[in-house]
Design brief:
By secondary structure, the protein is an alpha/beta fold. About 40% of the residues lie in helices and about 20% in strands. Bound molecules: calcium ion.
């Protein structure tokens, strides 16, 4: 199998080296750029399968790279972000980043984010619109063709709105989905962007799905940004 190629655009050498080592050890081909100009050149010349992008670069804001790259390719972009920068994350996602990873992060988190983004972009490329295989994580199975959600052997009854929310998250499992994109997906592009109705629905969903809604196993809150569903376990 050909190796996936990753481009790391990050000026902090220790983070760049850490990511590069981890990814090489896990059989990715890795290229690094220390600034935005070099990063853009490498994106154009090498067409990497995935881009890891620091937003605070010495010569430009990483958001400029996202906007520029999105004019011509849907290559997944994962933003490397500081812990408290919620608004920065939402802006990057709105501009077309696929996900973000918060510093400091560990090896398994980095690999999980990359896997989820690559899988999602491959799913978009292979035109499998007729059949999407069920989502599975732990005890949960969501069969999209039957609109059937089960936990263990128990069928979980969701309202049509609740089903749409869970299905949207499950089809993007492992990736963060912003409040705004869930609302637009479920209620349509002209929906009121008030998060409250989404929050109420999510509380009801969690009561139905989670053993302990305060310690979720399936759907996680990304504070100030959106929700993330646990990564699909089947490869
Ligand atoms: Ca930086």
């Amino acid at each position: 199998m050909p190796k996936f190629s990753v481009l790391i655009i990050e000026d902090e050498k220790n983070i760049q080296t850490f990511m590069s080592k981890v990814l090489k050890r896990h059989d990715y081909r890795v290229t690094c750029a220390d600034n935005g100009t070099q990063g853009l050149e490498l994106i154009r010349s090498q067409c990497p399968d995935i881009i890891l992008l620091d937003l605070g670069l010495p010569d430009m804001n990483g958001n400029n790279i996202i906007s520029e790259v999105r004019t011509w390719t849907s290559t997944p972009i994962i933003v490397i972000s500081a812990r408290t920068a919620e608004r920065e994350k939402v802006t990057a996602l709105d501009l077309g980043a696929d996900d973000y990873i918060t510093k400091p992060f560990g090896t398994s988190e980095l690999l999980a984010r990359i896997r989820a983004s690559l899988r999602h972009s491959n799913r978009l490329r292979t035109d499998e619109t007729l059949y999407i295989r069920p989502y599975r994580h732990g005890e949960m199975t969501l069969d999209f063709s039957k609109r059937l959600l089960t936990i263990g052997k128990k069928e979980i009854h969701l309202t049509p709105i609740e089903y749409k929310i869970v299905a949207c998250l499950a089809q993007n499992s492992g990736k963060v989905i912003t409040y705004a994109s869930i609302i637009s997906e479920v209620w349509g592009p002209y929906a009121d962007s008030d998060n409250n109705i989404l929050r109420v629905n999510m509380a009801n969903i969690r009561r139905k799905l989670e053993r302990d809604p305060a310690q979720p196993e399936y759907i996680f809150t990304e504070v100030g940004v959106g929700y993330r569903m646990a990564e699909d376990e089947e490869e």
